[in-house]
Design a protein that fits this description.
- This protein has 84 residues and is mainly α.
- The protein has a domain at 5-62: lambda repressor-like DNA-binding domains (434 Repressor (Amino-terminal Domain), Orthogonal Bundle), CATH 1.10.260.40.
- The chain is built from five helices and no strands.
- The longest helix is centred in the middle third of the chain and has 10 residues, at 42-51.
- The protein is globular, with a radius of gyration of 12 Å.
- It starts with a helix and ends in a 21-residue tail after the last helix.
Length: 84
């Protein structure tokens, strides 16, 4: 069973605000990721996996996006710069 991003965060015992403070990003970015409006950048995926004590594949599964090893989400899209 895959956990969603909010479930992974809650299981790790963090609020959205705490995660945003740790990652030094806006809290709205966390909300956007958790609601599927945006996808985290690769450096944030690694940071979330470490923070939530899970693998990066769990972050992809929890986001509802398809995980393709070796391909960064949004690669080749014109709006890839606005991934936060």
């Amino acid at each position: 069973m895959s956990l969603t991003l909010p479930e992974l965060r809650q299981r790790a015992g963090y609020s959205q605000k705490e995660v945003s403070d740790i990652l030094k990003i806006n809290q709205s970015s966390i909300s956007h990721w958790e609601h599927g409006r945006h996808f985290p950048r690769i450096q944030h995926i690694y940071a979330l996996a470490e923070l939530y004590s899970c693998g990066i594949e769990d972050i992809f599964k929890g986001s509802g996006h398809k995980y393709t090893p070796g391909i960064e989400p949004g690669a080749g899209r014109a709006s890839a710069g606005n991934q936060e």
